[in-house]
Amino acid sequence: LPGLHIFAIAFALEVSVGKTNTVTALNNSNVLLPCTFTTCIGFQDLVFTWYFNSTELIYHGKIKNKGTEPTRIWHNPRVEFVGSTTKKDNNISIVLNSVEFSDAGKYTCHVKNPKEKNAQHNATIFLTVVHKMVETDNTLTLIIVGVVGGLIGLLILFMLIKRVVLFIIKKTQDGKKECLVSSSGNDNTENGLAGSKAEQKAPPKA
């Protein structure tokens, strides 16, 4: 059926920004905006673009094929490409240098693959810029100890710490098998730098 064929092609190209589509950055810091793409049938002369608030182009690149690294067509001077397409993942992540409060907003990673009849897909990250990072773990610990009290509270705290340590060890081992953005994301989850393995659909445009 022709309709079914078109439907399959439309969903062959996927773009992901990781486990979460929200990133929090400290004012005047450099922030990673992760993005990877997958395609069922490969790619040829693939074009990718990054947009700020849907309209402002901040990075434009092209990838000839799987065996070549992306070439830059145009970029905002504050944007640095940090991805790679010759490794495990098709990584087209960027770093935004010296973020300011005016940089807060929506960042869209858009990919177009001519080999899939120009199939297009995108994913979106929402960036928040703050004066200082707020520690949330200490607050949670105080609440647990305060409510439960005494030895029970300390026991729960010990169990939480043990689980976190085991989780970090597991993620560190997993990270060795994954690409740049995945390992960066795992190491920086608390700062809002998402990994790249899980898929995240972009919200529909208004």
From TrEMBL:
<dbReference type="InterPro" id="IPR003599">
    <property type="entry name" value="Ig_sub"/>
</dbReference>
<protein>
    <submittedName>
        <fullName>SCN4B protein</fullName>
    </submittedName>
</protein>
<dbReference type="GO" id="GO:0017080">
    <property type="term" value="F:sodium channel regulator activity"/>
</dbReference>
<keyword id="KW-1133">Transmembrane helix</keyword>
<feature type="domain" description="Ig-like">
    <location>
        <begin position="2"/>
        <end position="126"/>
    </location>
</feature>
<dbReference type="InterPro" id="IPR007110">
    <property type="entry name" value="Ig-like_dom"/>
</dbReference>
<keyword id="KW-0393">Immunoglobulin domain</keyword>
<feature type="transmembrane region" description="Helical">
    <location>
        <begin position="140"/>
        <end position="161"/>
    </location>
</feature>
<dbReference type="InterPro" id="IPR036179">
    <property type="entry name" value="Ig-like_dom_sf"/>
</dbReference>
<keyword id="KW-0812">Transmembrane</keyword>
<feature type="region of interest" description="Disordered">
    <location>
        <begin position="178"/>
        <end position="206"/>
    </location>
</feature>
<keyword id="KW-0325">Glycoprotein</keyword>
<dbReference type="GO" id="GO:0001518">
    <property type="term" value="C:voltage-gated sodium channel complex"/>
</dbReference>
<keyword id="KW-1015">Disulfide bond</keyword>
<keyword id="KW-0472">Membrane</keyword>
<dbReference type="GO" id="GO:0060307">
    <property type="term" value="P:regulation of ventricular cardiac muscle cell membrane repolarization"/>
</dbReference>
<dbReference type="InterPro" id="IPR000920">
    <property type="entry name" value="Myelin_P0-rel"/>
</dbReference>
<dbReference type="GO" id="GO:0044325">
    <property type="term" value="F:transmembrane transporter binding"/>
</dbReference>
<dbReference type="GO" id="GO:0086002">
    <property type="term" value="P:cardiac muscle cell action potential involved in contraction"/>
</dbReference>
<dbReference type="InterPro" id="IPR013106">
    <property type="entry name" value="Ig_V-set"/>
</dbReference>
<feature type="signal peptide">
    <location>
        <begin position="1"/>
        <end position="18"/>
    </location>
</feature>
<keyword id="KW-0732">Signal</keyword>
<feature type="compositionally biased region" description="Polar residues">
    <location>
        <begin position="181"/>
        <end position="191"/>
    </location>
</feature>
<dbReference type="Pfam" id="PF07686">
    <property type="entry name" value="V-set"/>
</dbReference>
<dbReference type="InterPro" id="IPR013783">
    <property type="entry name" value="Ig-like_fold"/>
</dbReference>
